[in-house]
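Exam prep: given the inputs below (a chain plus adenosine monophosphate), describe the expected output before reading on.
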Amino acid sequence: MASTTSDSTTHPDCILGIDLGTTNSLVAICDERGPRIIPDDSGHRMLPSVVRFGPGGEIESVGDEARQQAVQYAERTVHSAKRLVGRSLRDCADDLRYLGYQVVEGANQTARIQLAGDTVVTPQEVSAVVLRTLRDRAVAALGYPVSKAVVTVPAYFDDAQRQATRDAGRLAGLDVVRIVNEPTAAALAYGIGMTGGEPQTVAVFDLGGGTFDISILRVIPKSEDEGQDDDDSTGFFQVLSTAGDTHLGGDDVDRLLMDLFQGEINEALGRTITFPAETRQALRLLAESAKIRLSSESETTVSLVIDSGEEAPHQYVRTVTRAQLNDLMADWITRALTACRRALRDADMAPADIDRVIMVGGSTRIPLVRERVGEFFACEPYTALDPDEVVALGAALQASIMSGLTRDMLLMDVIPLSLGIETAGGAVAKLIFRNTSVPARATEMFSTNVDGQTSIRITILQGEREMAADCRSLGEFHLRGVPPMPAGIPQVEVEFLVDANGILNVSAIEKRSGKRAGIQVVPNYGLTREEVDRIEAEAFSNARDDMERHRIVDLIANSRLDLKWIRERLEKMGDLLDDSYRSELEAIAAKLDACAVQAETDWRSVDANRFHTLKEELDRASVRMHEISIADSLRKG
Ligand code: AMP
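Solution:
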C-alpha cells in the first residue's frame, strides 16, 4: 500500500492544509490572498472519505463514486475509517454496528478492516488513500509536487490516534509537519489568535452528518504569549474541554423525516410494508433533500412513487413546513445542547463566559440549530465561512504560518477599506471608514425610493470609491415582509458591527414593522495588501469625479421623490391653487424633471450646481402649496 515519491523539486514553501474528516475530506492552500479550497477537475470541493477495494485488495474507487455505489459493494467499501484509526478493537466496539464492513483485531489489538476476498487493511491505509487523492488533486492544480501537509484531527484524539494519522500521511507520501486540532483550525480561519488583542474563550460547535463535537478553547494572543518561539506560531490555543456524541448528526434528522414519511405511507396503504433497499435509499435521499431545502425555504413538497406490490403504484405527496421539521428536531437539538452544558461544566464555565461561538459542519446550516445555539450561548455564532470548509481553511492558514507566508497577508487590527451599503442610483453610503480600529460599530437610517416596496435589498460594499460598481461586493440580503408604504416612509436602521476578530455583522431593522434581517461576512478574505494600496490610489485619482457623480446620483434620487410628491399634490388640490401659481410650479417641476432625465442618461453632461439650484427653486416654490395643503386639512378637521 505504501507509495513513495521523489520530491526533489518540491516547491519549498508549499504546505497543504488537509481536513481529514469522518465523512468528507478537503484540501486547501494559502497564499497572500488568504486560504482557499482546491477543488477537483469537476469542481467538487469535498472528497467523500470513502474507498472501495477490488476483490484482490486493489483500490477500485475513491470519493463520490465509491460512496454512490457503497450499498452495492458494501462488503468492499470502507467509510468512516477515522472512527477506527489508532484505536484497539475493544475501544471501537460501539462503532462497529454502524459500519457495513467487518472489523477484526490486528497486531497490538488494533482494529483492522476485513474485506471480502480475505483482504485486510488498516484504517491508516484507508486514510492514506484519501490523503493521497487530495495530494494528487493539489499537485494537479498547483503544477508542482507537494510533500508536506498540516492535517487536522478532533481535539479529543489521543496520542495513538494522532500518531496513526501521521502514519497515514507517511503512507500517502506526505510529511505531516503538524497535527492541528479541528476547533483550533476553525478559530484560526476566523482570524482568532492571528493577531494581538485580549484573550478569548471560544466554543466550537461542530455538527456534521454523523458526529457532534463541542470544544471550549482558550486563546491567548501571540503578543501576550511569552515563552513561545514566534517564527511559526499563532496565539496559544488551550483546549479547556471537549464533549459531544459520536453518533449525533444530520443523518438522525434524515431518519426522523424518513420515519414520518414511512409511517404515513403505511397508513395510506392500510398496512405495514417492508420497503426494499432501493425504496429505503430513495426515501433517505428524499428526506435529506427536503431537510436541506427547509434551511432556506419555509415549506417544501416531497413526492415519491411507491410500488406497493398492488396493481397501481402509490403516489406519496406531502408538504413539510419548517415549523414541522423544527418540532421533529426538538429532542435532537436538546441532546447537542446537553453536551454543550457538559463541556462548559468540565471547563468550569457558564455560557456567559464564552466570547465567541464558531459553527462547523453541514448541519449548522439548519436555522433552528443556529437559533438555539445563539440563545444558549447568548451570542451571535460565527457562520460567515462555509461550515464544511472552515477547518480545511484554518489548516491551510496554519500551514502558511509555518512556511512564513502569512507575513504578506492582511491581518486585522484596523479596517483596511471602508465598509458601507449601496443606496439609490448605485451610490455608496459608507458606514465605517478605513483605518478605523476594531472593534467598530455604526448605524444609519435609510428609506425606500419606490412606493409599496415590501422587500428591501441590502448590498454590503467595501472600498473607497463613491459608486457601488467600483467597490467590492461582500454579500447581500433582503429585508422581507415590510408592509407596503409610500416611498420614503419606511425607516430602515442599518447597523454595522465589526468585532475584535474583524468579522462584520450587518443587520437591518424596519422600525415601523419590526422586521429584521442580517448577514455576517469576513471583509478581509481574498484581499491582499497590494490590492488595498491599489484601491486607495484609484480612489485618490478619481476623487473629484467620484464626488461629483455621487452628488448627482443623490440629486436624482431626491428630485424624483420631490417631483412625485408635488405631482400628487397638484392633482389632489384641484382648484385650491390659483392658475398662475399652478403654472409656475409646473414649469419649475418640468425643468427639474428634464435635468434629472439628462443626468440619468449622461451624468457628465449635467452641472451639479445648476441641478442643485433647480431643486432648491422647486423646494422654495412648493412651500406655499404645502401651507395651503395644511390649512385645508385643518379646515376639514
Ligand atoms: P458534514 O459531515 O459536516 O459534511 O455535514 C454533512 C451533514 O450536513 C449532512 O447531514 C447534510 O445533510 C447536512 N447539510 C448540508 N447542507 C445542509 C443544509 N443546507 N441544511 C441542513 N443540513 C445540511
